[in-house]
């Protein structure tokens, strides 16, 4: 009867016979909820650590990818530069070949002219010697 009067007043006895404001069942559920919340917070904390390490790992991979990307772009630009240099060198060599061909033709014509003049002078000398 005293228990009922206290229960109506909102007071209850726990398993250690201490007076409590909450009902023992609600107190037990509150304790269980507190324990579950603590477990949940521990799991969330562990999850945050795992996610943090994963983010750090991904950041490292992203930096490596960016570095390799820059190296690839540099290599591609170098290749384009070498290709342009070779094309320019090829154009210079073709111009030099054309110039040398023109010079060769000029020297060939000059040689023919000189050979013809030598022949004429040789004929002239022979005729001059014969006339004496």
TrEMBL record:
<dbReference type="GO" id="GO:0030990">
    <property type="term" value="C:intraciliary transport particle"/>
</dbReference>
<dbReference type="GO" id="GO:0097546">
    <property type="term" value="C:ciliary base"/>
</dbReference>
<keyword id="KW-0966">Cell projection</keyword>
<dbReference type="GO" id="GO:0005737">
    <property type="term" value="C:cytoplasm"/>
</dbReference>
<dbReference type="GO" id="GO:0005813">
    <property type="term" value="C:centrosome"/>
</dbReference>
<dbReference type="GO" id="GO:0036064">
    <property type="term" value="C:ciliary basal body"/>
</dbReference>
<keyword id="KW-0175">Coiled coil</keyword>
<dbReference type="InterPro" id="IPR028172">
    <property type="entry name" value="FT20"/>
</dbReference>
<dbReference type="GO" id="GO:0060271">
    <property type="term" value="P:cilium assembly"/>
</dbReference>
<dbReference type="GO" id="GO:0061512">
    <property type="term" value="P:protein localization to cilium"/>
</dbReference>
<protein>
    <recommendedName>
        <fullName>Intraflagellar transport protein 20 homolog</fullName>
    </recommendedName>
</protein>
<feature type="coiled-coil region">
    <location>
        <begin position="79"/>
        <end position="117"/>
    </location>
</feature>
<dbReference type="GO" id="GO:0097730">
    <property type="term" value="C:non-motile cilium"/>
</dbReference>
<dbReference type="Pfam" id="PF14931">
    <property type="entry name" value="IFT20"/>
</dbReference>
């Amino acid at each position: 009867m005293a228990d009922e009067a206290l229960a109506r007043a909102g007071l209850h006895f726990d398993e250690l016979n201490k007076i409590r404001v909450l009902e023992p069942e609600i107190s037990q559920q509150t304790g269980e909820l507190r324990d579950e919340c603590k477990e949940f917070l521990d799991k969330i904390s562990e999850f945050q650590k795992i996610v943090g390490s994963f983010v750090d790992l991904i950041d490292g991979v992203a930096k490596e990818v960016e570095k390799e990307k820059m190296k690839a772009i540099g290599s591609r630009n170098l290749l384009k530069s070498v290709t342009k240099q070779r094309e320019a060198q090829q154009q210079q060599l073709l111009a030099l070949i054309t110039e040398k061909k023109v010079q060769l033709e000029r020297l060939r014509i000059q040689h023919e002219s000189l050979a013809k003049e030598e022949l004429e002078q040789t004929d002239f000398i022979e005729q001059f010697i014969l006339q004496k």
